[in-house]
Amino acid sequence: MSITVNVIGAGLAGCEAAWSVARYGIKVRLYEMKPQKFSPAHKYNGFAELVCSNSLKAMRIESAAGLLKAEMELLGSLTVPCAKENAVDAGGALAVDREKFSDSVTEKIKNNKLIEVVEKEVTELPDGINIIATGPLTNGAIADIVKNLCNEELSFYDAAAPIVTYDSLDKNKVFFASRYDRGDADYINCPMNKEEYLAFYKAIITAERVKLKDFETHPFSVYEGCMPIEVLASRGEDTMRFGPMKPVGIIDKRTGKRPYAVVQLRRENKEATLFNLVGFQTNLKFGEQKRVFSMIPGLENAEFMRYGVMHRNTFINSPENLNSDFSMRTNPDIYFAGQITGVEGYMESASSGIVAGISAARKILGLEPLNLPRETMIGALANYISDKFNAGKFQPMGANMGILPDIGERIRDKKEKYSAYAERAVNALKKELNRVGESNS
Fold it and tell me: Are 10 and 117 in contact (CB under 8 A)?
């Protein structure tokens, strides 16, 4: 093929888009500004860098996250196999060694003869078909291009959790366990009694936060799925205990009792030398993080290898601008992919890249479009971001069973119900893939 598709941005969505286009035998030019330039949140040279958590969420297919990944694999995903190859123990979740994961994706992209990597910042849109996957920190010239292409730009904020070393934890105060003894005991638990919790609560709601930069000083909303812990705490004394510090299902085997509250640490790398504080995304100043988080039992002398940070996220008003194949309504040769479209989450972003890449490739080849069924998780997300009904109130959406059409039969057991949703989704996707002659089914 003499046609070359331009993909702008080598995050999860951009890499999946490039990979999907190349699978159809079409050349790709993948633009990535690293290592010449880094966003405020990115530090690693590799592609598909995970900035927030290192968890890609649940693997079980009867969960929304697990179903999403199963569908991605049917569609020829690059990132899901790479994640499995570089997984670290995390109970029922798929968590990865983030650097090894990035290295794996980068290697496969660079070794693909149909993909040309161009290390430069894009300041004007290249001629031809473009897939814009510049991520939630889109700024500079490409942000101006997006503003000119779209009717509106929206912003929200999320944050990354701190990472501590395993060796610095007080092993006499923490213990490994899983909730309800389900799965392996992969999480480190830091139990708190009521007195310890209340002291921690008072410290966190009064701790000093980072002053927002000039471009962040306008009113903003905090996305509920990645809320800074201090914002959650400020909503009430018990909000943390009903959120990331929920003790339900945790028994301290040393006492035989359930803690009043618990902080969980999840493995960050394969070697289990680093652990992150689950749900503790934060915008506190670094010194305050050291002071406040050292109040957590077992973390009194914790060595922080990374403090939490908060960063800006940008997304377009997709219902006004995008079709369900992630192409623009006003310019069908321009596609968007990733968090900039308003899908929220690592794998959700990656899945949108797959859809954009497949859509662009099939259009170039004159093939019948792939129409993702609404019953699939990816299809439901694509429908959500392109449904004009959402235009006036559009906010990011992650994979969840609530966006799927009702199954039409009354199933009381939740697990059984979600299993039925998953079976329906997989069968619908396989049927559609067979219809258009795709071999991945």
Answer: yes
